[in-house]
């Protein structure tokens, strides 16, 4: 089915869109795409209870490439937007392209940016992209010997996909050794931890930079700051993300130029040199060091929960950018952003990121403040009752004239939501607030 956007983004009004995934990021994508006048049918697979309010949920798992391909063919889907990393790493986009179907996201080789931290680090080393010094280990004894002969802290990363939880910053040698044994011997992350990276710890402010690309052009989104650790003050284990806000004020205009010139564009050139045409999202997790921005990690999809405040702050239609990137034609497409700030506070199940129970009834407030959305991450409907089904359950997301106003809305709603074992951080955005206060 042909779909042509002009430079303003209008088309022939026949767009059918499938969003793959069932978390908060995908709900934010569906919510934004549902506002597009170009979309006539909107599907999500597998979706969740929140997404079901604005799209047709399809009972297919995100990794069911054959099933998704058959559905897209049957329904004549114009564009498939892939949310999570696992289907990208598994080759979903390759399968769709081979079938003549359009999908937003990198091919399997491009998704190696996230699928293998070793591959990504070696790519950066070959092409001079600034990142921390690192060593790679395929055996536990070699990794333990390295830790024994060096001084910490040690940043230990599982090579493969670990749902955002495969990174440990160990300050004590005993902790580093225990982490290596858990990854490489006990296989807490399965095959993802059979090979590990040990990096030098960088110091500075951490920010997330997301950019849409067709392999040549870049649409860089405002900087966001994620909160990976479970507890207030960035304590406790790593999670998939407990909250985020955007824009992150510590990325100054000069630093933003440096990120594009020294990291994003060199990465596109590096991928091209490797024979990879990358179409989709480049997610750069950066540390703003005294020596300039340095890459902590690359991901191959929208961040979760960074996507929630970013999409809430996006003015206008997202679809032309996704469609243009997938087709390799972003030239002329622009994105604009509403003034002020947006934030997301994740409401999680007790026990997350470890073992947790599900099936608890959820009660949502009857009314929300203006410019506030509750994005569903781990929810479903059972006999008409909204219940918990995941570790991260909801993402309360709000916009305000400034970060403090956005956070005030988030926390008012977070307190009003009720489910057994509800847990959330009380300090999302604290670094941004401190940064802004210091600049007044």
Descriptive report:
By secondary structure, this protein is α+β, with helices and mostly antiparallel strands. The chain has 13 helices and 24 strands. A hairpin with a 3-residue loop joins strand 13 (229-231) and strand 14 (235-238). The radius of gyration is 21 Å and the shape is globular. Mean pLDDT is 94; it is low at 1-12.
How would you classify the quaternary structure? single chain
CATH class of the largest domain: Alpha Beta
Structural class: alpha+beta
Main beta sheet, described? 5 strands, parallel
Strand percent estimate: 25-35%
Give the number of helices.
13
Per CATH, what is the topology of the largest domain? D-amino Acid Aminotransferase, Chain A, domain 1
Low-confidence stretches: 1-12
Secondary structure layout plus pairing:
Elements: E1 15-21, H1 24-33, E2 39-46, E3 56-57, H2 65-75, E4 79-82, H3 85-89, H4 92-98, E5 103-104, H5 112-115, H6 117-127, E6 134-137, H7 140-148, E7 154-158, E8 167-170, H8 173-185, E9 196-200, E10 205-213, E11 218-220, E12 225-226, E13 229-231, E14 235-238, E15 243-246, H9 253-273, E16 280-289, E17 292-299, H10 307-312, E18 314-315, H11 319-327, E19 336-337, E20 341-348, E21 372-376, E22 379-382, E23 385-388, E24 392-400, H12 403-416, H13 430-439
Helix pairs in contact: 6-9, 7-8
């Amino acid at each position: 089915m042909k779909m042509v956007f002009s430079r303003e983004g209008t088309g022939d009004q026949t767009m059918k869109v499938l969003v793959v995934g069932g978390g908060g990021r995908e709900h934010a994508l569906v919510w934004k795409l549902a506002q597009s006048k170009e979309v006539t049918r909107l599907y999500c697979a597998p979706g969740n209870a929140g997404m079901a309010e604005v799209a047709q949920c399809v009972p297919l798992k995100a990794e069911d490439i054959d099933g998704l391909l058959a559905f897209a063919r049957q329904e004549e889907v114009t564009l498939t937007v892939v949310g999570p990393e696992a289907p990208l790493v598994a080759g979903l986009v390759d399968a769709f392209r081979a079938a003549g179907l359009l999908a937003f996201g990198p091919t399997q080789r491009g998704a190696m940016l996230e699928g293998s931290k070793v591959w990504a680090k070696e790519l950066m080393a070959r092409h001079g992209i600034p990142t921390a010094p690192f060593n790679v280990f395929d055996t536990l004894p070699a990794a333990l010997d390295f830790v024994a002969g060096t001084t910490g802290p040690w940043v230990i990363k599982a090579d493969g996909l670990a749902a955002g939880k495969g990174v440990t910053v160990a300050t004590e040698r005993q902790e580093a050794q225990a982490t290596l044994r858990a990854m490489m011997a006990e296989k807490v992350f399965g095959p993802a931890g059979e090979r590990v990276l040990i990096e030098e710890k960088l110091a500075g402010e951490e920010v997330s930079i997301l950019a849409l690309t067709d392999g040549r052009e870049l649409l860089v989104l405002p900087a966001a700051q994620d909160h990976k650790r479970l507890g207030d003050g960035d304590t406790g284990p790593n999670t998939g993300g407990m909250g985020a806000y955007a824009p992150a004020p510590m990325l100054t205009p000069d630093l933003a130029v440096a990120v594009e010139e020294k990291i994003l564009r060199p990465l596109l050139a590096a991928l091209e040199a490797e024979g990879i045409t990358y179409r989709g999202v480049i997610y750069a997790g950066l540390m703003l060091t005294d020596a300039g921005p340095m890459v902590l990690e690359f991901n191959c999809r929208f961040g979760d929960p960074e996507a929630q405040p970013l999409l809430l702050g996006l003015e206008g239609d997202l679809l032309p950018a996704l469609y243009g990137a997938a087709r390799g034609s972003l030239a002329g497409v622009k994105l604009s952003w509403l003034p002020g700030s947006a934030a997301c506070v994740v409401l999680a199940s007790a026990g997350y990121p470890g073992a947790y129970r599900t099936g608890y009834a959820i009660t949502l407030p009857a009314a929300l403040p203006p410019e506030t959305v509750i994005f569903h991450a781990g929810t479903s409907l059972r006999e008409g009752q909204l219940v918990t089904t995941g570790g991260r359950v909801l993402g309360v997301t709000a916009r305000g004239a400034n970060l403090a106003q956005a956070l005030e809305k988030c926390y008012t709603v977070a307190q009003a939501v009720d489910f057994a074992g509800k847990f959330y951080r009380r300090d999302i955005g604290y670094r941004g607030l401190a940064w802004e206060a210091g600049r007044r």
